[in-house]
Amino acid sequence: MEIGDRGEPARDQVRGGVRAIGAIWLILLVAACGARGPLEDLEPGERGRVVRVVDGDTIVLDTGQSVRLVGIEAPSGGFGDRDPQPFHTEAKRMMEDMVLGRQVQLHYGGLTRDRYDRALAHAETVDALGPRFWLNAEIVKRGGARVRVYPDTSAANAPLFDLERDARENSVGMWSTREYRIPHATDLPDTFDGFQLIYGNVADMQGSDGFGAVCDLSLEGSHLRLQIQVPAAGHCQSALGANVLARGYVRDRVMEISDKLNLQIMSAPPD
């Protein structure tokens, strides 16, 4: 009888331990199910199989629909009298390795089509042919694209900045090349024309005569002006005197800051 008496408490302890472990797993499962990913609040769009990769930010589905992945800017191929941008071939191959022949689900967070009738979307793989990728994020993580935000498609773009920073700090992909090192504003040629990231100190703020702009920020030692659009208006005051990392299209020594995410206040120069 003593053996039986001693065995019952032991079994009770085991059962109690199992129940405790089960409760912990249930809590973790509920927490995981309750956590919402960046794409879950977006509007679900079309599904299709990727039959062609144009470059690191543009794919074509078997439905014939071209898709421009939002929130990113991959090196473009040559067109007109322009040569392909550095790292174009490598970025295109990265995207092909991830998604060519796979089923993807589109997600919309604003404007759904551009003037070329391309879908403006986030996309993720949804088949069993390989890992599940959020394409917009994965190409940034691999150093195949830079982050570029437009106000009308800015939903779910914020997480991309940390991925870009990590890729940059670890010299991944394009960030290992001389062409994509971020210049100080004083080193950017006055004749530069194109999308760029630059670093500098905001020296002054003035009114702007640019369409849709609320102010111009001048950078110390540089002819470049940051033209702040309405969605980024808060930076007219908050960036004054600060070191900033700015991104946008540069033309005639003016960079348009179209969204608040495109201007970041920095404590140190970017790597």
UniProtKB/TrEMBL annotation:
<dbReference type="GO" id="GO:0004519">
    <property type="term" value="F:endonuclease activity"/>
</dbReference>
<keyword id="KW-0540">Nuclease</keyword>
<keyword id="KW-0255">Endonuclease</keyword>
<protein>
    <recommendedName>
        <fullName>TNase-like domain-containing protein</fullName>
    </recommendedName>
</protein>
<dbReference type="GO" id="GO:0016787">
    <property type="term" value="F:hydrolase activity"/>
</dbReference>
<dbReference type="Pfam" id="PF00565">
    <property type="entry name" value="SNase"/>
</dbReference>
<dbReference type="InterPro" id="IPR035437">
    <property type="entry name" value="SNase_OB-fold_sf"/>
</dbReference>
<dbReference type="InterPro" id="IPR016071">
    <property type="entry name" value="Staphylococal_nuclease_OB-fold"/>
</dbReference>
<feature type="domain" description="TNase-like">
    <location>
        <begin position="44"/>
        <end position="177"/>
    </location>
</feature>
<keyword id="KW-0378">Hydrolase</keyword>
